[in-house]
Queue: 2 jobs
Job 1
Amino acid sequence: MAPAVLWFRRDLRLADNLALVAAAGGGGGDGVVPLFVLDPALWRPSGEPRRAFLAGCLAALDEDLGGTLLVRRGDPAQEVAAVARHHSAEVVYVGADFGPYGRRRDEAVGTALRADGRRLVAAGSPYAVDPGTLENQAGQPFKVFTPFSKAWTAQGWPEPAPRPDVRFVRDLKGDVIPAAPTTTATLPAAGEAAGRLVLDQFLDAKVQGYAEQRNRPDVPGTSRLSVHLKYGTVHPRTVLARLGSSRGESTFRKELCWREFYADVLWNRPETSRRAFNPAMAGMQVDEGPEADRRFEAWAEGRTGYPLVDAGMRQLQAEAWVHNRVRMIVASFLVKDLHVDWGRGARLFLDRLVDGDLASNHHGWQWVAGTGTDAAPYFRIFNPVSQSRKFDPKGIYLATYLPELAGLPPDDRHEPWRARAKGADLGDYPEPIVDHATEREEALRRYAATRAN
DNA sequence: TTTTGAGTTGTTCGA
DNA sequence: GTCGAACAACTCAAA
């Protein structure tokens, strides 16, 4: 008998891993060959935080596998086929990938394997309910979150799968596990054990207050699980099995459902990673050219003169992560105050975030921009000052990321231009690059013009 | 087929 | 300071 190959992608764990369970059952009696392929199409000179986290996950996985993880660098179709051929493995097991690139890649790998008389078998996915599974009574994909969430809950999901007892084998020489690229951001600990710890801490200390605390960037009230869900060091099934029915737990379950909703939307409409989900909104007037570029740069560097926006963008640089509410606020500012196309902001987020996920990121941006599913009403425009006062009342988050403002009395941090007018020294902290009230009116005008067409 | 109810996350204004 | 209404109309989902 021949061993089975288990090709890891974004499921870098051994617990609750359906592809591993399937590999153990199919040929795994003769061992499982754990493989990871460094795909040059994904391992590019950008997205340093994500690559650094991935490198950490691979090192941790290799350790959990007793040093047997086989890493190969190259085209997945060639590398996977070569490894399967070497081991005479009939089947290569994977967790399904539902992203636009992953679909094409897996198609090519499956073709290469079949040409060799072998098969690519998908078992499980990064989701509790696979994208493309749920449809409304008309047989169509859902376009609105709430009906989707009802169907999602009704569909249910299996209990977490126990880790099977298999022998991992490796006799091929591979490439070394890549070193983490240098990044100035302080990143979370990588790997399955780190993910389990984050989940334990969330359930022990934070989930009961989650419904209220999750909106507060000044307190650690969110789960911090996004990066682990992205790389599969924690599976949502594992999380869902541990959630009860309290208010905080129900609120968090809904957030997990949003992740699955957006994955489903992207599966059904893969072109929406580049284009508006709602074509009627694609014609919105956006600013381009040197002045728009300067404003985009100021936004990206955290130098807009609006403290909550700048604090968010500097948190992005410092930690490769931003609190969810602040993500909405900085996104709203770029799209509605600076009138820049949502795609530019979405791409920058994906490049800089350690938890950057195409479906959640781009559809979150589309929601803010009003081009997506359940689009925000056009008149819903975040006021960066009132959001700051409401969700960071003592200016603690502002002071953490904006040292120029840390010396101000807490209340003055929300509107530093007032403190400066009174003579306070803010160093080189900029004046607001635009006037929010003016740009809000401009955004409303553009939405009205789009609707009229 | 037609109808009905509903739709993540907000802001402003005026009483 | 607090509260409710207005902001517009459209699409989706389901009965």
Job 2
Amino acid sequence: MNRPLRTTAATVRRQPRNADTRQRLLDAGLAVFAAEGFRKATIQEISRRAGANIAAVSYYFGDKAGLYAAVFESAERQANDEDPWPLAGDGPPEQRLHAHIAGFLARLLDRDRRAVLAQLLAREMVEPTPALDRLVRRRMRSNHDHVATIIRELLGADADAETVRLCTLSVVAQCVFYRNSAPIVARLYPDLDPPAHLTQLADHITAFSLAAIRAQRAERAT
Amino acid sequence: MNRPLRTTAATVRRQPRNADTRQRLLDAGLAVFAAEGFRKATIQEISRRAGANIAAVSYYFGDKAGLYAAVFESAERQANDEDPWPLAGDGPPEQRLHAHIAGFLARLLDRDRRAVLAQLLAREMVEPTPALDRLVRRRMRSNHDHVATIIRELLGADADAETVRLCTLSVVAQCVFYRNSAPIVARLYPDLDPPAHLTQLADHITAFSLAAIRAQRAERAT
DNA sequence: GACCGGATCAAACGCGCATTTCAAACTGGC
DNA sequence: GCCAGTTTGAAATGCGCGTTTGATCCGGTC
């Protein structure tokens, strides 16, 4: 029930003055857009949750699409800032691969705020917006290259680009699956709960992929 | 509530009439729902494409959601009928795995009608409806079990269920990825076109997975 | 021919929601 | 205390779209 507040209630409901309305809209927008998707989300609901007036969206962001873009960018920057990827490369490639897979899965499946960007992203898979292009350019490309580098090391320096690419995508695919196809997994194995088995999953995907990559290398050597 | 009679003798008798409006709505609905998604699709557009009046949707299916359910079910049955899975199991498991992966990829990525159900399904990943439950129960479970059987053969009869499940999902994940994450792949590798390289993809995924599975078996043997 | 009931049609209705409006409240600077 | 700017507010506007309505057509039956 999202009935607008009456005048008296509104004055009573005065928030701390400097809890910036703009920021509160971004936070509420992130939650609602992630939960409902762009079309289903209403700015009424978002501004209600933010304790702001409907007109505030237009005032700060122009329109609903502008709010969405700002929410996406803000979530992206926030994720980058407070939870940067460990792109440094030291240690054996096997170990780095495992670390990367574990971190990736956590970002995808974690129950709290970290996975909200992934949820937003999953919706972009089916209804891409310009925000997706930016995210790929700014954030995903480097991660992807990082995995590709590890895998090239594992395959040997003389592996052709094609093979590197296919193996990289196979690794990424196994991780992404547990988020983007979660409804299927949940229905096939109702008593299973992937977020609760992050480390087991990471171990499996790493072992599975390492074995496959080593075999490709061995075969090429013949 | 005015509904057309069920397919009793009465309906069959008077079919020279333009009784295929219902079917045309199903066809148009399939195309539009797959392309736009449930919310964005409009019944105006659907009935226009079907050459039918707007009221026909209400007349035949009650409402928009009813049309969607009917479209989904019809597409599902049609896919089952005219393009059944080869679930029979003869030949070496390696060969059956490859055949299954190739068939699966074709269903996911083919450019024509076969992949439309997969497109609809991809949307269900992000907004599940009751149609998804039915599809999993009726169609996906058996396919999944088929893959699991092959993989259990490859792993050896004494492999534990956990391992079988993880390996099965790893195989499925690699296939599904090229559809459900197509926007990402397209942006990471703009000059790549997965549907055009179906056999190469199938070969890679099979080889990759077979190597991984064999390694799991070997390790368990120690 | 008169009648019935299914099928189609154009038009209207009503609702949800994004967007706009314009006045009121607040802010800091003078 | 007054003013120009910014921010917030309740209510209005407009529109897209799902759904309904009531008329009309048409084949089959008596």
